[in-house]
Amino acid sequence: MSNEKELPKSGRGGARPGAGRGSGDKTKISVSVDEDNWQNALTIWKRKPSWLVDELVANYVAGHERSQEARAV
Predict the structure, then answer these.
(1) Residue 17 CB: number of other CB atoms within 10 A?
(2) 49 phi and psi, to 5 degrees?
(3) How many alpha carbons lie under 13 Å from residue 8 in its C-beta half-sphere?
(4) Rounded distance, CA 36 to CA 51, Å?
(5) Where are the domains of the chain?
(6) What is the distance between the alpha carbons of residues 66 and 60, in angstroms, rounded to a whole number?
(7) Phi and psi at residue 38, in whole multiples of 5°?
(8) Is the confidence at residue 1, as pLDDT, over 60?
(9) What span, in angstroms and rounded, lies between the C-alpha atoms of 61 and 46?
(10) Which tens digit of pLDDT belongs to each residue from 4-60?
């Protein structure tokens, strides 16, 4: 047996949980809007502009899923 004390591990190096590439469940999209349409939308939308983008993308995805289901039937 050794008389040396074990030092606590520093936590440096080695694999870490959650490290590495993602599972691929995210999809990047690109959206372009002309200046007039964007300004018109902002006058109607009274919250943060980024929330407007999130809402529009969510509505698009929901509509796209419904159209995919209709095609499958």
Answers:
(1) 5
(2) -60, -35
(3) 2
(4) 19
(5) 47-73
(6) 10
(7) -65, -45
(8) no
(9) 23
(10) 777 666 667 777 777 777 776 777 777 788 999 999 999 999 999 999 988 988 888
Helix 35-44 and helix 49-72, axial crossing angle in degrees, nearest 10: 100
- From 30, 52, 58, 29, select the one nearest 40 (Cα to Cα): 52
CA distances from 26 to 20, 21, 23, 51 (A): 15, 12, 8, 18
Read out DSSP for 16-60? -TT-SS--S----------HHHHHHHHHH--S-HHHHHHHHHHHH
**Contact between residue 41 and residue 33 where contact means Cβ atoms under 8 Å apart:** yes
